[in-house]
Specification:
This protein has 526 residues and is of the alpha+beta class. The chain has 15 helices and 19 strands.
Amino acid sequence: MNRVFYYSGYRLTIFHWAKNRFIASYAFNPDEEGMIDFYDYLCTTDNYPARILVDVIEESFAIEKIPHVGYADRLAIVKRLVEKRNRESTDYSYFKVVGRETSGRKDDNVLLSVMTNPGLLEPWLKQIEKAGIAISGIWSLPLITEKLIAKMGLTSGNVLLVSQQVPSNLRQSFFQNGQFKISRSAGINLYEAPLGEYIVEEAEQSARYLSNHRFIGFDERINVHVICNEKDESSIKSKCSDTPLLTYHYHYVGEIEEVVGCDDIHEEYCNGLFSSLCKDELITRSHYGPKNLFKFYYQQLLENTLRAVSIMAAIISIILGISFIADTSSIKDEITILDKNTNAMELAYKSQLQQLEPELKKSEPMMSSVLLYEKILESKNIAPQNFIAEASKILTSIGMNDITITEIKWGRSQAVPKSPVRRGAKNKDVEINYSQNVEIKHKVNLTGYVHGASRDKKAAAKKIRLIQNAFSKDKQFEQVNIVEMSLDLRPEKYVEDESGSGHVSASEDAKDGMFELEMLMKGQSI
């Protein structure tokens, strides 16, 4: 499922696709009732990642000359340019290198786009964050128009594309040889004048602007391509006449939808057309938005990755389990014979055949094999993917930026009577005895380390305790213990040199916050 939130500066329209086929669209007004309906929609639909497409008047475009430097320095220069003009738009700016000067310092020509009033999106973003919806990026409609020009085959000469996404706005985007240069949006009122008059006026105004800013020469011709409804074509043509500098061409919305591959939308305007282009954009980098806006999307990516790993682990375990069950099923008859032989040996022992006692002791492992097989049949569907999915949620909730998980070991644990253990010695794994009527549970050993523990051991110890507490509070875990924690804050861990200054033991510091948690899962294993 794909969905695009198209925002025109006033109303928000949502387009839904499934397998590249259009499903439905929903529109919400920015009043109190519209915001309530929008929040209800977010809470009652599946949390598929959404893309935001903006088409607002408050968006500026300019070609800037900056020194030819590395990527990091270029980022810093562009950031200073944006902050100098509008500090609030730092996270709502985008740039790309579109060329380089051939003389002088050979500076880079950078296309810089800035959303000058990001506060327009704030009411909608608050509802999205409140509902916990994953946002994968914010795209600018004029910038993705470059792909539409390529699909229409308008990749040579001067092209001014005129489109109408909503009734109250007219968008003009200028391209040279298929490369985006600038775009502007103008408000219109169709009750005061017909659409054709607005198109002529805006096209002539755009031509003057392009000439004055030296995008084109004063005598260069511009091909004006108008995307309109079939019903509006005659009234537009009656107002738009070719001039020595402007030549008009007309395209129906339905024809362009067919070119793009979204002819099942049947929208009156071009908002659905551009939303279809937005849904096909790569997610590697969107145009606008602060990083914290995409936190739910990154969390979904992490969960999906861990879920895929768990599925692979489950498939492998199922394959191994099927192989093992196939082997054990082939000895069902032998198990029945072993049961009969065991009973016969017990009767023989009761008939004063004590001399066979060493042989009779072999019946215990035979019984253990029988019980193991039965328990395997009962719990053959158990796999560790539940733990991996739950652990990913727990670790994401407490923050993984300063910890690294190095190993997850899956095993079983059987309760046995406690025996004295020498101080400082590690707990050894106890061999599982399936013949005993003692409960066996899943056991997980989680190993990792905290970054920067050598600099702040108390903070590292606090982080490890936080991880332990987070797992302890989860209803799926019965017992969570810290098996090993290479953070010892006792005074004797410090030694003094001849001058009396303290030093941390190098071997202790090298462990850098290593820890190991051992936890038992609720529910019985085989």
